[in-house]
Design a protein that fits this description.
The chain is of the alpha+beta class and about 160 residues long. The chain has a single domain (about 5-150), classed as Nuclear Transport Factor 2, Chain: A, CATH 3.10.450.50. Helix content is about 25%, strand content about 35%. The chain contains 3 helices and 6 strands. It has helices at about 5-20, 50-65, 130-135; strands at about 30-40, 45-50, 65-80, 80-90, 105-115, 120-130. Strands 2-1-6-5-4-3 form a 6-stranded mixed β-sheet. Strand 5 (about 105-115) and strand 6 form a beta hairpin. The chain starts with a helix and ends in a 27-residue tail after the last helix.
Amino acid sequence: MTRDAKSQASLDAVKAMEQGLANNEMDMLKYFTESFTWRGNQGCGTKNGVHAFQRNWQWPLRAAFTDRDYKTDQFLADGEWAACFGHIEGTHTGTFMGIPATGKRVKIPYMDFWRVEDGRIADNPVSVDFASVMMQLGVDVFGGEGWEKYDNGDAEPPKPEGY
C-alpha cells in the first residue's frame, strides 16, 4: 500500500469512529483494536483497552454532557497516523469534575492523534482542555494565575535575567 493510500485508510478509520461516537454507538470494537490505548492529558487519564475507554471515558463524558455535537475543524493524516482538532459542544446535565449540572452549553476543545493498524485504532494520544470547560462552568483551576492575564496587558510577565 502506498503512503497516500495508507494515509487515506487511516483517515477513513478515524472518521468512521468519530461518526460512531457522534451516533452514541456502544460497539467500539469495530473501531479499536482489543489492546487499544487511550492516553489523555492530566485530568483525563490513560485507558487500556476498549472496555476501560468506554467505562472510564465515554460513559462519564456522556453522563456529564448530553446533546453533544462533534465539531472537527481539521483532519490530517500521514501513513498509519491521523489527527484532528476541534471541539465537542454539549449541555452540562450531569456532574463534571465535582461541578453539579448547570444546564450550560459548553465547548470541550480537543486534539486527537490516532495510530491505525489493519483499519482499527491501536493508539490514541489525546489532549482535552478540561481547564477551559471548567472555566466555562465558573471554576478557574488556575486561581487567576493563568498566563492569559499577560495577553491583554493587565499584568506584566516576569522577565528572565538579562532582558
